[in-house]
Amino acid sequence: MNAFLRLHADDNVLVALKTVEAGTSISVDGHDLVLAETIARAHKVAARAIASGDVIVKYGMPIGRATADIAAGRHVHVHNIRSDYTPTYSLRDNDGVEREAS
């Protein structure tokens, strides 16, 4: 069984079908990548490099924008994307440092 699934051909993220440990090698679009971090089941990884400001596409639809550069195979979640549609669950301090919302 593959560990990741692309839900739509236009997606630039893949969804983990199970928890995949850091150090695991995966093949994405013919390129081998080693996961730098553990990816929890149902979380996303970048299928290709995504630049800060680029649209994140899942289900063939935009779900938000990258807030930082995201290398292929890296975790894509609230720490590096923001929704264009709903409030985020992280906050930025006045100095721009991100912290979890309480």
TrEMBL record:
Which Gene3D superfamilies does the UniProt record give? 2.30.130.110
Provide the SAF domain boundaries.
11-82
> What CDD domains does this protein map onto?
SAF_AH_GD (cd11613)
| InterPro entries found in the cross-reference section | SAF (IPR013974), SAF_UxaA/GarD (IPR044144), UxaA_altronate/galactarate_dh (IPR052172)
Key word Lyase present: yes
Sorted UniProt keywords: Hydrolase, Lyase
GO molecular function term, any single one: hydrolase activity
Identify the domain of life: Bacteria
User: Is Lyase among the key words of this record?
Assistant: yes
Protein name as annotated: UxaA family hydrolase
Its lineage reads: Bacteria, Pseudomonadati, Pseudomonadota, Alphaproteobacteria, Hyphomicrobiales
